[in-house]
Design goal:
single chain, mainly alpha
Length: 137
């Protein structure tokens, strides 16, 4: 995952974590819900990155942590915890990821092609026969 529970606390405070993930109001966080929201957010991010980068990323840029947190808080929020600010941060994250997928924005890491990276390449000889060389035959 690109972010952790502690990353949410560091970014938005412990109160925000309780607003979203203390669903029954008993003062105890639902750790499974937090993990699921962060996992879902990571998978959503990977969906945008998979066309341009080899997943999982060897190096995770810091901006992905922020995007993961914003997506997880939005996706994890019930209707009572959902705010306009969370919706806007989610939409901004999706716009940014779309630009990354289109190649308009860089993650700041070396582009990795999806698929194998064995380093093998194939080179063939030039054409032996062409329309000009076979003219008149």
């Amino acid at each position: 995952m690109y972010a952790t529970q502690q990353d949410i606390v560091d970014r938005y405070g412990e109160d925000e974590l309780y607003v979203v993930f203390d669903r029954d109001g008993d003062g105890v966080l639902d750790a499974n819900a937090i993990d699921q929201a962060l996992s879902d957010a990571t998978e959503e991010i990977n969906g945008y990155l998979a066309g341009r980068y080899s997943i999982p990323l060897a190096t995770v840029p810091g901006n992905l942590k922020t995007l993961c947190i914003d997506i997880a808080l939005y996706k994890g929020s019930s209707s009572t915890a959902l705010t306009e600010e969370k919706r806007q941060r989610y939409e901004d994250a999706v716009k940014y990821l779309t630009k990354v997928a289109e190649g308009k924005v860089s993650l700041g890491i070396e582009k990795q092609e999806a698929g194998g990276s064995s380093g093998a390449s194939f080179v063939g000889n030039g054409r032996l026969f062409s329309r000009d060389s076979l003219k008149g035959m």
